[in-house]
User: Fold this.
Amino acid sequence: MTAPAPKPRIEPLEPPFEPAVGESLQAMMGGSGIPPIALFRTLARHPQLSDAMRGLGRFVLGPDLKLGLRLRELVIDRVCARCGCEYEWGVHATAFGARAGLSASQLAATVSEAVPVPAWSEEDALVLAAVDELHDSARVSDALWARLAARFSTEQLLELLVLAGWYHAIAYAIHGAGVPLEAWAARFPES
Assistant:
């Protein structure tokens, strides 16, 4: 029997939304018409913070990111997995995993503490190693940095660093506020 979900510490807003809040939530959803996710409805409790976060969120999820969709999603999925943030990992695995060209086994491997090397290209493995070093030490070793710098542009490296930090912040907000899981989103695989 599944245990009941814990009560959120900060309740997500529920519809009907005030017009300005509804507009802001739809903007956060990219104007998709899909109902706003619990994270966005939680952040909407602080409109100024929510609006401030939207700019960076739009950039990292948008077409101008030089890192590309696949590597972006690898960074996000691995950061979320290392932070134990099933909510955001599941949202991204479901919404972007297939589009990013990530197989079910690769998505599951992002949750594994020891990521199996055969599952990844050299580029994938470098990005995952960077995420792991950042998570473990808040640094990237000189040896790994040299390998990354030989493969990626300065813009891509900056995006990787900020993206990893951004999703740590997202994981902290989700865990701290107790954002409830989305019913439609993937769950961490059984180990």
User: Anything to note?
Assistant: The longest helix spans residues 154-177. The mean pLDDT is 93. The radius of gyration is 17 Å.
